[in-house]
Amino acid sequence: GAERAFLFLLDADTGQLAQYLGRDGDGNDIEELTAYSTTLVDRVHATKQPLVVTGSEEGVALGSRSAQIHGLRSIMVAPLMFEGRLRGVVYLDSRIAKGMFDTADVDLLTAITTQVATRLETARAAGLALDVQVARRQRDVAQRLHAAMRDMTSTLDPDEVMARLLSALSETLHGEAAVLISHVDDRFVVTASHGAGAPAGTVVDPVPAVLVGLTGPVVGAAGDGRSTGPCAMLGSPKGWLALPVAARGDPLGVLLVGSGRDGVVGGPQVEIAGAMAGQGMTAYENARLFSQVRRMATVDGLTGLYTRSHFFNEASRQCRIAQRYRRPLAAIMVDIDHFKRTNDSYGHPVGDEVIRAVAARLRAAVRDIDVLGRYGGEEFALLTPETGVAAARLAERLRAVVCAAPVPTAAGQLPVTISVGLAYLDGDDGDLSNLLARADAALYEAKQGGRNRVATAAA
User: Fold this and answer.
1) Nearest to 207 by CA among 181, 225, 185
2) pLDDT band at 135 (very low <50, low <70, confident <90, very high)
3) In what order do the strands lie in the sheet with 239-247?
4) Is 453 in contact with 420 (CB distance < 8 Å)?
5) C-alpha to C-alpha distances, 331 to 12, 222, 380, 442, 445, nearest whole angstrom
6) 374 pLDDT band (50/70/90 cuts)?
7) For residue range 100-116, what is the model confidence (pLDDT) as tens digits?
8) Between residues 197 and 134, which one has the greater pLDDT?
9) Residue 97, exposed/middle/buried by CB under 10 A (0-12, 13-18, 19+)?
């Protein structure tokens, strides 16, 4: 919902932020980066903490006159951090109500900026590596690493990235097997495998002594007395290489790669494999972070329901189908009664327990074809392909299911009721925004009428 986004990168020589790029909500470049809150950008530069501002008054309170002068209704700023160091700042703003940001948005932005910072650092490091390639062998290594990195970064599936890394390492050592051994639930387990390597899920017991406590690469050859364990996990290699790997600084496990050539793996091969593993783990972590971001963008962390934005995506699709084939469609808005009183009386952790329990009861009462999402703090939205009569029965069932029993919380058993607003279409022209607005108006009517009831908007 942002209208504009600006990227500032840190100048390593001056330590100051420099304007780098601007884009508007339609994806067009902004030639001149102006009319933004320098105060808030500087604040994030200094504190290295993200912030979100909703409303010009809050912006002024934080020292941003730009929020008032330029009518910025919502601002969100997040740092680009890599290994604890600031690399830049991302700034977004909006002057319209549709673009109002909240804490969930800033959490999502922070997850995205973490991935962006990692990619920027990877690009910088790759550029430096290419600058120092002066010999043919080094250039060949760079080209091989580039090809492997391009292959690994062409997918955003973490498992596929790891599979391609193992394949590239096997090819580098002219072998036919590679495995990733990780520490899982106090056991060492093969968590990824390539070729003739032990299949994923294999428990490594006992762990070969040569692989315990690795801090750097270790090589071996078949029959050298310490290679029985490593070779058993790699089929029948002539040699092997073990590389300890980490993700975001935390140990992930050991990459074990078989070699198809006689003797111990040579130094240049170890160097190439080590660089490839390092780049591959960066790609793996990027893909893993992307998967987390994608989940954050679709599933609400507290309730497990669709987020507001993903609800709109799914509901819009259902609305288009209903209009195309003139099928019935109903929208149901749900709000927990007197929820502020619960938060004020028992605290937000108990309030979260109530929201989570209500969401679970709503989810249990609807079908897979219904689209259910968390619309706001204690508000939920449901889109269902039902006629007016069937939708009214569903709305009443939701109300009854939620209030049927108290919600168990840390503060004890709390009685909970909901107010429900219903609006529906029966093949008539209409759009999702209008349908939800009518359901929301009906919800307001239910609350004004005493709460713990269902109100239906006029057809």
Assistant:
1) 181
2) very low
3) 187-195, 177-184, 250-259, 239-247, 218-221
4) yes
5) 53, 68, 11, 11, 15
6) very high
7) 777 778 888 888 888 88
8) 197
9) exposed
Q: Which of 284, 276, 296, 295 is nearest to 118 (CA)?
A: 284
Please say if the pLDDT value at position 140 is more than 70: no
The answer to whether 296 touches 111, Cβ cutoff 8 Å, is yes
Backbone angles phi, psi at 346, to 5 degrees: -120, -10
Non-local CB neighbours of 255 within 8 Å, separated by 6+ positions: 165, 166, 169, 178, 179, 180, 242, 243, 244, 245, 277
Alpha-carbon gap, residue 354 to 335, rounded angstroms: 12
Query: Tokens 């992930």, residue?
Result: 252
Nearest-angstrom CA–CA distance, 236 and 232: 7
pLDDT, tens digit (0-9, with 9 covering 90-100), for 214-256 = 888 988 888 887 788 888 899 888 889 999 988 777 788 899 9
Residue with tokens 């980490």: 246
Q: How far apart are CA 39 and CA 354, in angstroms?
A: 38
Distances (CA, A) of 259 to 124, 204, 218: 32, 20, 13
- The token duo for 397 is 């069932």
Sign for the CA dihedral angle at 252, 258, 262, 267 comes to negative
